[in-house]
Amino acid sequence: MRGSSTCTAGAIATPDPAGQYASESVKSVAAWLESRDFDTAPVYDGDEPMGYVTDDLLDGVGDDDRPVAELCHPLDVGVIMSPDTGFERLLSALYESRSTAVKAECLGA
Questions:
Q1: For 28-70, how does the pLDDT look when each residue is reduced to its tens digit (9 = 90+)?
Q2: Which of 26, 36, 39, 48 would be a feasible disulfide site paired with 64, CB 3.0-4.6 Å?
Q3: Which CATH number applies to 15-75?
Q4: Distance between CA 48 and CA 50 in Å, rounded?
């Protein structure tokens, strides 16, 4: 990518990403993720993000009618990146967060 040293996480982030409300049921959020082929989405409490869900977290939830707020991962310092994070650091963080199997697949192993 040309000029990647000046590209930041904020420049390539999805503005206002599609998400679900905390009161939605776990099963409806799982179906929503699958229907859009998303692997991750934010969970909102009103207009504010309060957490996130992944397809792995919701895999096999069946008919779980609990609010997704009870199951979602919290947003904390460990999962938030500054919009000023450089592109190389962003890629490195994304790579580090992937499973060993995905890393092996990316490396052609």
A1: 999 999 999 988 899 999 988 899 998 888 888 888 999 999 9
A2: 26
A3: 3.10.580.10
A4: 6
